[in-house]
Amino acid sequence: MKEVSSGVVVESRMEHRPVPKNWEESELTRFFAHLEQQILASFAGLPEWFDILIRIDQSVTEKAPTFFHEIDVSRRTSVKLFMRCFATYRTAVRLSVSGQLFEATVLMRSLLESAVYAWVCSVSDGHRSAWEERGDSDERRRLSRKLFQWKDILSLLESADKDLAPRISDMYDQLIDYGAHPNVDGLALSSDVKHLGHDKYEITTVFAHGREAVLLAILDLIRCMHYVRQLLFMVIKERLQILGLDAEFIKTSVLIHELIGKHEAEQK
Predict the structure, then answer these.
(1) Is residue 35 part of a domain?
(2) In which domain of life is the source organism classified (predicted)?
(3) pLDDT at 130 over 70
(4) Given 24, 139, 199, 249, which residue has the most CB atoms within 10 angstroms?
């Protein structure tokens, strides 16, 4: 096997071996095997949507070594945060297409935060320094916490893009409600409570949802990455234009709108 990182391929320490005979003997490993089957089912059953997820990954994660080539010192922290965002996207895809919706919202929230932090660190030396020096002392930690208040950062973003900031804010709040924090709405969608009588109840937890819920998760993830790519464009606009990736972003956006339109028509 090989482990792949951005622009670097190294041999893994793992050796290729057959699946252990006792792999599915526990409930936990059977659950893992089930999730793998869910991913394959999503790939086969939602090919157009899966293709969009792949296109997004190709346009950011795979292209990152190209558009992040020779980045100046002032934007290196921003690059690190964007790369963490892209890596989180891959994991969020895995959770979403396997049906782990509640858990996927946690990562969607994380990738939005990484991208917004990346943007603010690219435009504000004060924020960048506070982020980089957060672990230097208790005083620097307090300053970092103060500067990185979510509402305050979104206010800064709104001064740069009055349309993007409220969209990210709405998406972020939705994710908080449905799983990024353990709130009522998220738990209601991922569990079922049955009244058995005599003040007794049966509670069933949904560990992996089916096709329709998977599609909803994909839609949310696509929306999150649309905002991420807008933030990326704000940071390295010239570089993306030189490479023609702005046109690729637009092409993918058109495909997404077409698919959403087709999906909404099918629901009527």
Answers:
(1) no
(2) Bacteria
(3) yes
(4) 249
147 φ, ψ to 5°? -70, -30
In order, the DSSP letters of 83-135 are HHHHHHHHHHHHHHHTT-HHHHHHHHHHHHHHHHHHHHHHH-HHHHHHHHTTT
Domain-embedded: residue 215: yes
DSSP 237: H
Cα dihedral: 98, 102, 107, 110 (round 10): 170
Distance CA 58, CA 11 (A): 22
Of all residues in the chain, what percent are helix, strand and coil, respectively (each to 5)? 75, 10, 20
How high is the pLDDT of residue 164? 96
CA geometry: angle at 89 spanning 181 and 157, to 5°? 70
Instruction: Compute the distance between CA of residue 259 and CA of residue 227 in angstroms, rounded to an integer.
Output: 18
| Residue 31 belongs to some domain of the structure | no
Domain residues for the domain of 167 are 47-267
Q: How far apart are CA 93 and CA 247, in angstroms?
A: 24
**What distance in Å separates the CA atoms of residue 26 and residue 73, rounded to the nearest whole number?**
49
| Separation between Cα atoms, residue 261 and residue 4, nearest integer Å | 36
Which tens digits make up the pLDDT trace of 59-114? 999 999 888 877 777 788 999 999 999 999 999 999 999 999 999 999 999 999 99
pLDDT category at 145 given cuts 50, 70, 90 is: very high
Give the pTM: 0.88
Which pLDDT tens digit goes with each residue over 189-224?
888 888 888 888 888 888 899 889 999 999 999 999
Residue 5 binned pLDDT confidence (cut-offs 50, 70, 90)? very low
* Number of domain units in the chain: 1
Calpha distance 159→157 (Å, rounded): 5
Q: Write down how long the chain is.
A: 268
